[in-house]
Design goal:
This protein has 427 residues and is of the alpha+beta class. Helices cover 26% and strands 27% of the residues. The chain has 10 helices and 23 strands. Helix 8 crosses helix 9. It is elongated.
């Protein structure tokens, strides 16, 4: 049986991707979870893992070619008995739903704790199970369907008191490199250890095509300015209380970045004005979001990325700071996953380190706001009739007028400023 491999959407704004490198060639065996190819998107260059076990029957999109999202890029077969005629017929009818095969099983009474009336199993795994007389009703898969590695006890093992799940290719590499798997945190389905967890190479390509990245940024920003009616709110923030707070916390061993404090202030403003945590989709759908998902613009040698810290409303400042540092490190190591770049409502763009006092930023498509942050500077101000010198930053909030009006956006923005100017240990 033949199965289609379509180019997936790996980011909210992705419309197409360039096949950078095929890791497998035609007629090579492939296991679910093994890297099939590298694809360059509008965000980064990423690895795509095979959704099925089998063999590469046909590569449709060659290296260097661009494919649209959901376009057929390869065909997988569950064995090597396919012919060119089979492939030609499949290409004529490639809207088939040959994704997962369902095998009916009548489980025994003792097995009902972990098996349903229907068990999902890949064709190759089913073939091996039948050949080895394996009762698949007794197998508890590490994912939503049984793969070949679930049938081989060498692919799952007990490491002390901790059960470790690992893909076949990752296990092979870990054995070759004598990697202590107990030290690794799997990033695959159900915390399964996969190739990128044991490989020295970056999860993302080490040398993305900068020209193509610039083209992607140009396309996204042009789309934003042409389709999102921007309006801008700006003010300056008195930093006296915030700077004292950071200094006091540093003496206690807590080194909080300004961006982490900004994220907490934004989250608290969302709590004060829940309707401001909204998104307007290009299809006309309007959503009030429950979670506070906030992005941050990070520059690296791999280009500009905007990773998103999700569910910030559930974190204290320590946790926000820790999550932010982790996302920044992943960005600079070029190891962001597609989910790290999605679902944001607002992003922060901080150019203060470049001595920029103020600027207007362009909203990332799919989001509602972007907060532009300038450098900390000293300026004079009047306090109770006296001229004083204080520390300030300029903030500019770019807003999507389709999602928010001026009043709600101003209430939200003013709340952010108040949170910054009145920060305390109780925040």
């Amino acid at each position: 049986m033949l199965y289609e491999v379509n180019l997936p959407s790996l980011s909210p704004t992705m419309e197409e991707g360039k096949i950078v490198k095929w890791i497998k060639k035609e007629k090579d065996p492939i296991l679910s979870g093994e890297v099939l190819f590298e694809v360059e998107t509008d965000k980064a260059t990423m690895e795509y893992e095979s959704p099925e076990d089998g063999y590469i029957a046909k590569i449709i999109s060659k290296e260097g070619e661009t494919a649209n999202v959901n376009q057929l890029v390869a065909i997988i077969s569950d064995d090597l008995t396919f012919t060119q005629e089979d492939i030609n017929n499949f290409l004529k009818n490639n809207n088939s739903d040959n994704k997962i095969q369902t095998l009916e099983i009548n489980p025994s009474e003792n097995d009902k704790d972990f098996v349903s009336d229907k068990i999902l199993i890949t064709p190759l795994a089913k073939k091996i199970a039948q050949k080895k007389n394996i009762d698949i009703s007794k197998i508890k898969s590490i994912s939503r369907r049984i793969h070949t590695d679930d049938l081989d006890i060498n692919e799952t093992f007990d490491n002390g008191a901790i059960r470790v799940f690992i893909s076949p290719l990752a296990k092979k590499i870990s054995n070759e490199k004598s990697i202590d798997l107990s030290k690794l945190k799997g990033t695959g389905p159900d915390n399964r250890i996969i190739l990128r967890d044991v490989s020295d190479s970056n999860y993302l390509s080490e040398s993305p095509n900068i020209n193509r990245l610039r083209q992607a940024i140009a396309k996204a920003t042009t789309h934003s300015k042409n389709n999102i009616p921007h309006f801008y709110l700006n003010t300056r923030v008195n930093m006296a209380t915030l700077l004292k707070f950071r200094k006091d916390q540093k003496l206690k061993g807590n080194k909080y970045s300004l961006n982490a404090i900004l994220m907490q202030s934004i989250s608290n403003a969302f709590k004060a004005f829940p309707d401001s945590n909204c998104t307007y989709k290009d299809n006309g759908e309007f959503i009030i979001n429950k979670d506070h998902n906030i992005g941050i613009a990070v520059d690296s040698k791999f280009g500009l990325k905007m990773p998103v810290i999700k569910k910030i409303n559930n974190f204290n400042l320590n946790e926000i700071n820790s999550n932010l540092n982790e996302k920044i490190n992943l960005t600079r190591d070029n190891k962001l996953s597609p989910s790290d770049l999605s679902d944001g409502v607002i992003s922060i763009s901080n150019l203060g380190s470049f001595n920029i006092r103020s600027f207007d930023a362009i909203i990332l498509p799919g989001q509602t706001y972007i907060l532009a942050v300038g450098q900390i500077f000293e300026d004079v101000y009047v306090d109770k009739g006296k001229i004083e010198i204080g520390s300030f930053i300029n903030l500019t909030l770019s807003c999507d007028h389709r999602a928010v009006d001026g009043v709600l956006a101003s209430q939200f923005f003013s709340s952010i400023v108040q949170n910054l100017e009145n920060i305390s240990d109780d925040n």
